[in-house]
Specification:
- The protein is α+β, with helices and mostly antiparallel strands.
- Among the domains are: 107 residues, Cupredoxins -  blue copper proteins (Immunoglobulin-like, Sandwich); 104 residues, Immunoglobulins (Immunoglobulin-like, Sandwich).
- Helix content is 23%, strand content 36%.
- The chain is built from three helices and 20 strands.
- β6 and β7 form a beta hairpin.
- The longest helix has 34 residues.
- The radius of gyration is 31 Å and the shape is elongated.
Length: 317
């Protein structure tokens, strides 16, 4: 069973090359055996009329029909291979737009010596596992923070260069759940062999539970410089059993904007609804900056809950 759209694409192309090569090989070796047997030397054999004789120009031999047939067959084979190859290339180089993939299916992949970082639109970041939903088109924006790397997923037959200052887009559709090895295929330093990650393909329900079960709100959502806003992280049950288990542990807040939290970490407390918990921190901007502050909350999970994150924005006047 195929595991991704890219594997199907490359397997089809490989099959085209293989079947044509087998067909050509059968024809060539059949003719070779036929001519060897038919024109083998016999006691009654005599020299052909066009045998080269020293000092004499040999007569022309061959037929234009043979040339036309040979060139025509070669052209048909090459055209078939060219059409198949360019069709595969066109498909690979035509990724879906970010708006055409599901929420959480467009991921920024950044290569570092010697690990991969996977950053999701909701602010979640992971240095080991790239988690994606089954049956969806996945768009990966691949770049590097230091040297040249090559991002590849074993089993999906897909890879692309990770180059500092440049973003290469690769995409695929998942057909099979499971774990697949992510590896760097470009020698990038002494730790190159250990630069690996995991592609974790899960069903859509499990993915959405993981991706959305941390939500963050800030009130007020628009503040002036040096005015405080209360940011609350609300978590819902993401356990595989779905029995309404209450998330436990800590949530960590961060922002790249100028400002400070009264504390960056808060401890979850059970909510009024079954399977929910929340905690809050205070954020105070110290400068307007770009006019907004992106607040991210990261939950590290517990024995029954998976890790997740969420984000929101505060407008700063």
């Amino acid at each position: 069973m195929a595991v991704s759209s890219t594997q199907v694409q490359f397997d089809s192309l490989f099959g085209l090359f293989t079947y044509l090569a087998i067909a050509v090989s059968i024809i060539v070796f059949s003719l070779l055996i036929y001519f060897v047997v038919k024109y083998r030397d016999k006691p009654s054999s005599r020299q052909p009329d066009d045998t080269p004789i020293l000092g004499k120009v040999p007569p022309s031999r061959g037929h234009a029909r043979s040339v036309v047939v040979t060139v025509s067959l070669s052209t048909i084979i090459l055209v078939a291979l060219i059409i198949g190859s360019f069709g595969a290339i066109d498909n690979i180089l035509s990724p879906p737009a970010p708006s055409q993939v599901c929420d959480g299916c467009s991921v920024l992949v950044t290569g570092h010596q010697f690990y991969w970082n996977f950053a999701y639109p909701n602010g979640h970041s992971d240095n080991l596992v790239l988690r994606v939903p089954l049956g969806n088109s996945i768009r990966l924006n691949v770049t590097s923070a230091d040297v040249f790397h090559d991002f590849g997923i074993i089993g999906l037959d897909i890879k692309t260069d990770a180059i500092p200052g440049r973003t290469n887009v690769m995409w695929f559709t998942t057909y099979k759940a499971g774990n697949f090895t992510i590896q760097c295929f470009e020698l990038c330093g002494i730790g190159h062999a250990t630069m690996k990650g995991i592609l974790n393909v899960v069903d859509e329900t499990t993915f959405q539970q993981w991706y959305t079960h941390t939500r963050i709100t800030c009130s007020p959502s628009s503040v002036a410089v040096n005015q405080t806003s209360q940011c609350t992280a609300l978590l819902s049950d993401s356990s595989p059993s779905g029995l309404g288990l209450t998330p436990k542990g800590n949530v960590t807040f961060s922002t790249p904007a100028l400002g400070y939290f009264n504390t960056r970490t808060c401890t979850l407390m059970a909510g009024t609804s079954k399977g929910t918990a929340s905690c809050s921190v205070l954020y105070t901007p110290t400068a307007a900056g770009t006019g907004s502050a992106r607040i991210t909350s990261v939950y590290g999970g517990d024995p029954t809950q998976s890790d997740s994150s969420g984000n929101t924005a505060i407008l700063i006047a």
